[in-house]
Specification:
With about 110 residues, the chain is an alpha+beta fold. The protein has one domain: Arc Repressor Mutant, subunit A. Helix content is about 60%, strand content about 15%. It is built from six helices and three strands, in the order ααβααββαα. The longest helix has 13 residues. The chain is elongated and about 50 Å long. It starts with a helix and ends with a helix.
Length: about 110
């Protein structure tokens, strides 16, 4: 990931509602959530939610899948890994053992 894409992702996450949406979709995992479900869960109008989801999509943090008339959204774990990798690429002066605690904290348990 380059700095321009990372900046776009951070910009998308700098707005509180979008950050809440992203965290909600991370929790939803591979099931994702329909746009209406997300709006309802966060108490946000659907047109406002649609705009926020579009920003997250353009930033590479979510992807979607059409289900008839509805759209289901998912956290884009590839984009998330890319962003985390960007942040950690120069971690600890090239000493990966020193970063193990941080990596363990952000890794999903298998």
């Amino acid at each position: 990931m380059d700095i321009k894409i990372a900046s776009l992702a951070f910009s998308a996450l700098s707005q509180p509602t979008r950050l809440e949406v992203f965290r909600l979709l991370i929790r939803a995992g591979s099931d994702g959530m329909q746009a209406g479900e997300i709006a309802e869960a966060l108490g946000v109008k659907q047109n406002t939610m649609s705009a926020n989801l579009s920003v997250l999509h353009r930033a590479g943090l979510v992807h979607n899948q059409r289900e008839g008339r509805a759209i289901r959204y998912f956290a884009d774990f590839g984009g998330t890994r890319g962003l985390l990798g960007f942040l950690m690429q120069d971690c600890c002066g090239g000493n990966p053992q020193a970063c193990q605690t941080i990596i363990s904290e952000i890794a999903c348990d298998a």
